[in-house]
Amino acid sequence: MSDRIQWINALSTRPSLEAAVSEVVEKIKRDLEGPADLGMVFISSAYASDYPRLVPLLLDKLSLPVLIGCGGAGIVGTGGEGRSREIEGNPALSLTVARLPNVEIRPLYLEANDYPDLDSSPDRWTELIGVAPEKNPHFILLADPFSSRITDLLEGLDFAYAGSVKIGGLVSGGMLEQQGGLFFHDENRRRNTALYRQGVVGVALSGDIVVETIVAQGCRPIGQTYQITEGERNIILEMSATDKDSSPNPPLNLLRDLIQTLSDKDRELAQHSLFIGIARDEFKMQLRSGDFLIRNVLGVDPRHGAIAIGDRVRPGQRVQFHLRDADTSALDLELLLESYRSEREDVSAIAGALMFSCLGRGETLYEKPDFDSGLFQRYLGAIPLSGFFCNGEIGPVGGRTFLHGYTSAFALFRPGRGRNA
């Protein structure tokens, strides 16, 4: 039996759940070398009425000690000839099965009521997770958007496991609370419910595994960098340019001046696709697009010139306005993939990958199918890829983990060469 990581994905678009399950399981069994350690399933909301039947059907045909998954409005998987596909709005079932020798797998089902207070010690969070920090676990997290208090969870996990990767997404496809689907199976857990409608499911992986991320926020900066000089909660009251001595100004005044310098195309884009980036590294002098956490511009106060954004602000932070469109989004991902490939000696060591992409990307943005996943495989090869289109994407920027929008977040898995990765 091979002692290497084996990562297999199978995709089916059969309209019948039974037929779809049979198809993916048949492919998995054909390619799997030995017993599986972990399964991950992503299922189209087109099957929503069949969600309660999914896990029993899978486990009846395939032995999986641990299984996590969720429903989504769009599903990512690997189709024929190893080509990645993004199935949006149609039935799709994507099953990934992994053999992970020398990797400890801690299955997680978490409810918001279980979280420690945010001012609790890190020990309270490690007790909740059940993995010691020195094991440096990496997390895959799938969450209900209504009940999970996901930002609190990410803040707590960053506090307790500062060097660990946290990656994942929020369930999509259920427009109302209790319509989504989270799937969970742990053969060693007494509370072995197959389907949850709230909370968070996931796994913590530690041992001989490395998890790397690519987080493409799909924006490009415009104008210069500013420093916030006065702010309150999520409202920027004053800021000043960082490249010269200038007095603080209301941000709306600075934005109006900036818009006058833009091309006609960008000026039109700023009417509906304007964002703001917050620099994550306080000490980095030369900032690039990937150095910013992108947040929505929520509104303006013309009377005082203030701008409200989708995050808390504080004086001293550096910010820059950004624009988003299909060309920018494509270029951003392409540059990140190119950079990742150039910095790795051997991308063939990557065993598999997960993709968590915003509902606002895909064909809605690019007007063509399989764009982000196709770009991923163009740069990194025919790596088994699976995932779903999310209501919010989880991924790191600048050493901390955030909930994003309009983003494609990738997790790449490779062996740790025998080290405690």
UniProtKB/TrEMBL annotation:
GO cellular-component term (any): plasma membrane
Which SMART domains has this protein been placed in?
FIST, FIST_C
User: Which InterPro entries does the UniProt entry name for this protein?
Assistant: FIST_C (IPR019494), FIST_domain_N (IPR013702), UCP018953 (IPR016741)
Key words of the record: Cell membrane, Membrane, Transmembrane, Transmembrane helix
Question: Which residues, by range, are in coiled-coil regions?
Answer: none
FIST domain: which residues? 35-243
- Record keywords: Magnesium included? no
Q: Does the keyword Transmembrane apply?
A: yes
Q: Where would I find the FIST C-domain domain in this sequence?
A: 251-397
Mode of membrane association: Multi-pass membrane protein
Q: PANTHER family given for it?
A: F-BOX ONLY PROTEIN 22 (PTHR14939:SF5)
Name recorded for this polypeptide: FIST N-terminal domain-containing protein
What is the species of this protein? Pannus brasiliensis CCIBt3594
